[in-house]
Amino acid sequence: MSSPEAIPDGELYAARQKIYPREIEGRFQRLRNLAVWVLLGIYYGLPWIRWDDRQAVLFDLPARKFHIFGLTLWPQDFYFLTWLLIIAALSLFFFTALAGRVFCGYACPQTVWTESFIWIERWFEGNRSQQMKLAKAPWSAEKVLRKGGKQVAWVLFALWTGYTFVGYFTPIAELGAKILQFSTGPWETFWVLFYGGATYVNAGFMREQVCKYMCPYARFQSAMFDRDTLIVTYDETRGEPRGARKKNVDPKSKGLGDCVDCTMCVQVCPTGIDIRKGLQYECIACAACIDACDEVMEKVGYPKGLIRYDTQHGLEGKAKRIVRPRTLVYATLLAVLVAGFGVTLANRSVVDVDVIRDRNALFRERPDGRIENVYNVKILNKDREAHDFRITASGLPGVEVDYAGPTVRVEPGAVQGVPVRIRVPRAEIKGGADLVIAIEAADLPGLGASGQARFIAPTD
């Protein structure tokens, strides 16, 4: 890891110098651009997709329904979210052990939105040298127009980001109509402004500082690295000693390595580091320096790969072990979790039942000699169609079920509570026993669920 940047005497911290990353072409940059377009396309496009008569992806918190295309999840399905979070965390460990901070360089929201804001900045202020020149120039009409236009575009883009975020929780077309009529609720207004403001500040101004000082991932990444982790690295053995030289000059005749000290790797870095100083926590593995260095090596007639994806063992001339016990364990656990998630989700029942005892009385002895317990049976219909349910009980001899009507109709997405009286002959039970209360759709045999309850009876 590199040492912190120098802090002047008497100062608590070094003043931030704005980074103007140079635009670069190359295979990794094209991959990053593709990732930005795909991820932003998904984020901004999903809320506008329709599925039957509703928004395809909608997290309807007031109704406690989470619609994901043809799937509707309820609070009872919360364990699926926990499952997904575990998969996401393990995926992060796996890809970090395999290829370092590759997630940060290509898919992290901070990286994606920062790249978008940089594009907007270039549209208004030009390339790196033009931006630096404009920053040093005195204020003029042109500077006000360029700087002001950029800020307006940033604000509009950030607000659209906040609007889209809230559109995942409030139907986005309905939210748009409310905004045009200035009739949004306090929470909708707050979250549009808050999320938009956070995007504006983080991607427009803080940029690499979020990665350096706020993101915890950079701090604990070293615990997930080993000497076989793929990292963006500089081949010091080949590159040093560095120095300028004329094109097509044999560096060995000048006592030089392959690095021409052009600093292009520093100029294209979005976090402003010098990769030639070794592995650094600020490096987000975006590989922009690889593209820049390869382009320079091609121009001077040297082999590419002075800066490349490699392992520390690879740099030392040892065998690379991309597949190793750690990655195998992570991959196996991921495969099991993903397979289990898919199977469980595919076999998830669209109905559920919750049985709650009436606590006003433990039991009642009827004149006919039977013992009666009362339960509140709550039927949850997570299907998209209404169903008529029959209620049955089993597990005790002579058990009898009594409730209003032969069936109970439950509308789609509704919870219906039904008072149910369970009776058992006095001679068949003593003290108490467990029984099973089940529901089954009369109009769709096989669709049902069951719950266990305790039946209480006299002990003598």
CA(first)-CA(last) distance = 77 Å
Proportion of strand residues: 15-25%
Q: Please tell me the overall pLDDT.
A: 91
Number of helices: 15
Radius of gyration: 32 Å
Tell me about the largest β-sheet: 5 strands, antiparallel
Shape field: elongated
Total count of strands: 16
Poorly predicted regions are none
The class by helix and strand makeup works out as: alpha+beta
The percentage helix is 40-55%
Can you tell me about this structure?
- It is a single chain.
- The chain is α+β, with helices and mostly antiparallel strands.
- Among the domains are: 27-73 and 108-206, no CATH class; 351-456, Immunoglobulins (Immunoglobulin-like).
- Helix content is 40%, strand content 19%.
- It contains 15 helices and 16 strands.
- The strands form five sheets. Strands 8, 9, 10, 12 and 14 form a five-stranded antiparallel sheet that branches. Strands 13-11-15-16 form a four-stranded antiparallel sheet, with no helix packed on it.
- A hairpin with a 6-residue loop joins β15 and β16.
- α4 (109-125) packs antiparallel against α6, α4 (109-125) crosses α8 (186-206) and α6 packs across α8.
- The longest helix is centred in the middle third of the chain and has 26 residues, at 141-166.
- It is elongated and about 110 Å long.
